[in-house]
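Deliverable D5.2: sample structural annotation.
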Amino acid sequence: MSGTLVHIGVRASNIENTIRFWRDGLGIPVVNQHSDTAYDLSDGHHNFRVFQHKGPERPEHIGGMLDYLHIGIRVPDLEEAARRLLDLGYEIFSDGLGGDVPLDVNNLKEKAFKVHDPDGITVDVTASSDQWPGAGLTD
């Protein structure tokens, strides 16, 4: 018997900024809103709930190769997604042991790029269907 990944949740420091990032920047539609405390986004297969953080002030986010979490997403058009994110004020980059390296959106040589969400979570963005083994979603 195997489980099925159906839900991921994150707590946002500013829920409106985070929703703009995921909905407007990466194209994940909002399918439900729980007043101003949470939004459900979905690709039709997985539920991604964004909660408004209401606890004490958070420590600074650890990013790069030291973070505990990153999220991967597949988009239909890599360059279009990169341009939307740039228009929203986000930096498109590649990372590695040497740190973040900004990428030229007009000349994306790799099949993917990275971007930080408003709370510093690294998001891997690709248009390739074979980026992550076992993720066999079809269009």
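Annotation notes: The chain has a mean pLDDT of 86. The domain at 7-54+62-126 is CATH 3.10.180.10 (2,3-Dihydroxybiphenyl 1,2-Dioxygenase; domain 1).
The annotation will be released with the project's public dataset once the embargo ends.
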